[in-house]
Structure to design on (522 residues):
């Protein structure tokens, strides 16, 4: 049995001590093997990764992208800074590659922050995950897993699902190659995105608007998944050459960073 | 608080009475508002949607697709029969559109069935969901939600996550447009894929190999999400013209069904 409990927090809009706040809110019964799923936005705010759009000076390339997709040159400038590559876009969105992953608008978001400001992704999500895990271990002696989660669209589907940016203390991807199924067929290509599944499960309680629930405590995750591993964003990525979607859609990776078509 | 409990079942390999089996296995404490997430493969087997590959006669087009992507003409024939359109592929996979959704191999799967046989998707997943929900209501007087789930890859990411094919008695997509966030910003495009989130949450217990857990009982889903709605696969779909991924990747929908490049 797996259980998910919401951890409600105050509304935050500038840098704060995430481990101290979390430690104060999770209550007394945190146990070894519990997993905290924490929204990337909450982590990013704790790290002060907030930018006032009016303070951003867009380069010529950013103005070009902005004109093409019909939105703010300042936001486009931040997207170019944050992403490895911009693949294309539609009005109001660009599809970027960040740390090897397809990420609309390079993860930059205008919601749940004051108007005129945006929140970037944490600078290094896996270091954020590891930092929170280590700090809570130091404070409480409890061995936890931590997942940093965001929400994202899937192609040709309506609505966002949870997605993991990084995790620590947990097997983020469960490799099933070589394992047998119920009929002894050997699985050849299967792996299971545990950290993404946990992010989606947590999204049921986090919501997307004013729920004030950026942390979800998950209990009962299989012990076999709780290990001292760290997964950074790149560990969740496969290249476009390996990807059935990108190859089927005829996408060819560009050689340079920060090109766009 | 949300809880997820695995419902272990016998291994099944031919048609069976899904509501009767489920009724016998879920135990006494099923409550109004509980949600059952059921694997599409288990539902499909209950409906006898199993095909021996040796019994399939491939058309010329299927032989062509098979030669191009290096796999069985019989399997390609089934994929053509099951899909609206084949977009492209890589060795061992074709990317098809089925009921408006991008679906590798049109959802046809060789795992967890005897060698030489494959399992198709349920013929009408939302009717399957509605049927199971109604039958359990009749048997027990309990008002449940039902989600039919599968697992699927996301582009440029490693590992599968849960995805919903249909649901009944549950708000599958939560529309948040017009709702305010914590700072009063109005959300303009956001909706949350509740049925997909539930499918991914359930996948943590279902696994992908020999877990014998094709049903997960979810308790504690917000009452606001439990409604008499039905969602079929098409309700989860957006067209390629609306999709930020497909448009950014330059995909143009083909006019006819069952074309491939």
């Amino acid at each position: 049995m797996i259980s998910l409990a919401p951890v409600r927090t105050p509304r935050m809009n500038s840098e704060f001590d995430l481990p101290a706040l979390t430690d104060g809110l999770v209550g007394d019964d945190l146990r070894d093997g519990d997993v905290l799923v924490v929204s990337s936005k909450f982590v990013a705010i704790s790290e002060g990764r907030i930018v006032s759009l009016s303070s951003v000076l867009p380069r010529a390339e950013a103005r070009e992208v902005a004109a093409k997709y019909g939105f703010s040159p300042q936001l486009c400038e931040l997207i170019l800074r944050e992403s490895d590559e911009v693949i294309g876009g539609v009005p109001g969105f660009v599809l970027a590659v960040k740390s090897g992953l397809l990420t609309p608008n390079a993860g930059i978001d205008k919601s749940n922050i004051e108007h005129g400001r945006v929140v970037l992704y944490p600078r290094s999500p896996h270091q954020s995950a590891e930092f929170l895990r280590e700090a809570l271990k130091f404070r409480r002696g409890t061995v936890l897993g931590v997942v940093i989660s965001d929400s994202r669209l899937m192609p040709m589907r309506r609505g966002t699902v949870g997605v993991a940016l990084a995790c620590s203390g947990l097997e983020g991807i469960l490799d099933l190659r070589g394992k047998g199924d119920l009929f002894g067929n050997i699985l050849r290509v299967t792996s299971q995105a545990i950290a993404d599944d946990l992010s989606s499960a947590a999204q049921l309680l986090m919501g997307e608007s004013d729920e004030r629930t950026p942390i979800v405590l998950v209990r009962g995750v299989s012990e076999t998944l709780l290990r001292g591993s760290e997964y950074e964003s790149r560990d969740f990525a496969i290249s476009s050459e390996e990807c059935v979607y990108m190859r089927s859609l005829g996408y060819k990776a560009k050689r340079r960073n920060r090109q766009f078509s």
